[in-house]
Amino acid sequence: MKSAIAPAAIALGLLLLIASLLWNFMFPATKSWTEEKSVRLTELGNQATQTNLKLLKAKERPSMHSGESAAELQDQFDKISAEYKALYDEFHNASESPKTISTALKWTGIGLTLLGGIAVLATRDA
Question: Considering its fold, how many domains does the chain have in total?
Fold first, then answer.
């Protein structure tokens, strides 16, 4: 039974290495991140920039007769920024998740393969 554990660890380690190589193809980031979300993220970025510029202008030269007040613009900017941040966090998670899992599989596979190899060498000499 002891002699079967080391080759099984090597086989499992190699299987995990292969799975780590194929992980990005099996579960691409595009499954959870769509083109519509990408367009919306771009729109929100543009709106945030435009609103921020209007806000800066309203703070520099407040006008009671034309345009929106600085408080209204600040509220609008905060809402846009919150939605942008939530969507950006979703994008970041969608792009990083496959890499993180693939890295964990790779290093676990390397570790198991090395431990199995060391165990095989140790049992051969004994």
Answer: 1
- Residue 12 and residue 77 in contact, taking contact as beta carbons nearer than 8 Å: no
Q: Token pair 């806000």 is at which residue?
A: 55
Q: What gap in Å lies between CA 87 and CA 34, rounded to an integer?
A: 12
- Sequence length of the chain is 126
Interval 82-123: pLDDT, tens: 999 999 999 998 888 888 888 999 999 999 999 999 988 888
Instruction: Tell me which residue range forms the domain holding 31.
Output: 2-125
Return the sign of the alpha-carbon dihedral for residues 70, 76, 79, 81.
negative
Helix 35-60, helix 70-125: angle, nearest 10: 140
Tell me the two tokens of residue 43.
């729109």
* pTM listed for this prediction: 0.63
Residue 12, CB-side half-sphere exposure with 13 Å CA sphere:
11
Which of 53, 92, 42 minimizes the C-alpha distance to 76? 53
Max CA distance (Å), the chain: 92
- Unique residue bearing structure tokens 């595009």: 30
